[in-house]
Amino acid sequence: MNGGRITSEEKSTISTYVGVGVLVALSLGAVFYYFLVAEEEVKQVTGYDPNRDIPADVVLKRRLGLEAFGVVREGKTQMPFQNKFWDEVRPGIYADVITGDPLFSSVDKYDAGLGMPSFSKPIAADLLIETLDTRFDMQRTQLQAKRSKAYLGHRFDDPNSPTGHRYSINSAAVRFFPVEQMRAEGYEAYLPLVQKK
Fold it and tell me: Where are the alpha helices (DSSP H) in 46-153?
C-alpha cells in the first residue's frame, strides 16, 4: 500500500485470494452435499421395508449402474452364463433390486441349462405382472415385479420343472440374500421358504 491507496497489483492479489476462497467454499459444500445424499441413499436401501417408495429413474440409474438399469427399465437381457446368479446354489431369497420385495426362493431354483437363474415358481403369483411379449417375432410371457414394474425376464412352459413352468430372470433384476443374512436384512419372515422341503 502506498499512502492508503490500493495498487492494481494489490487488487489482483486480493481478487485471487477471494476467488480461491469462494472455490474452496463451493468445493467443500459440494463434497458435503455429495456425502449427505450418498448417506441418505444408503439409508433408503438398507434392510427390507415393504412401504419404501420407488426411487425416481435418475436415482435408480446412479444406484444400480448401467447394466442393471438397462435390464429393469429398458428391458435388456443379460448374456447367458455371464451373469451373477446363474450358478448360485446357496439357500436364500431373491428380491427385486429396486424395492427389495422378495420374489423367488432358492428352494424353487433349478438348473434349466440356460445360464440364467431359473425358478419353478415365484414366492407368490401376485408379486409378478405377466404380459404378452411379441418382440423378435416370438410370443412369450414377460415378467415384471408388481410394485416397481421392473423387467425381470420371461415365463416359459417347461416339462422339466415341478410346476410345468420356468421363470427365467436376469441376475441384474434381483438381489440375493443368503440365508445367514436374511434376518439382518429384514427377511426373517421368509426363512421358512428357503428350507429344503
Answer: 57-64, 66-74
In whole angstroms, give the CA distance from residue 44 to residue 180. Answer: 22
Query: Residue 38 — left, alpha, or beta (φ > 0 → left; ψ -120 to 50 → alpha)?
Result: alpha
> Closest Cα partner for 93 from 128, 66, 117?
117
Beta-carbon contacts of residue 79 (< 8 Å; ≥ 6 apart):
115
Nearest residue to 82 via CA among 117, 106, 111, 115:
115
Task: Note the pLDDT tens digit of each residue in 34-91.
Answer: 655 555 544 445 578 878 889 899 999 999 999 999 999 999 999 999 999 999 999 9
Q: Answer for the pair 54, 147: CB distance below 8 angstroms, yes or no.
A: yes
Kindly tell me the sign of the dihedral angle through the C-alpha atoms of 14, 15, 16, 20: positive
Which triple of cell numbers denotes residue 94?
A: 431373491
> In the chain, what is the straight-line distance between the N-terminal and C-terminal CA atoms, in Å?
88
Instruction: Identify the helix (H) or strand (E) that includes residue 18.
Output: helix 8-45
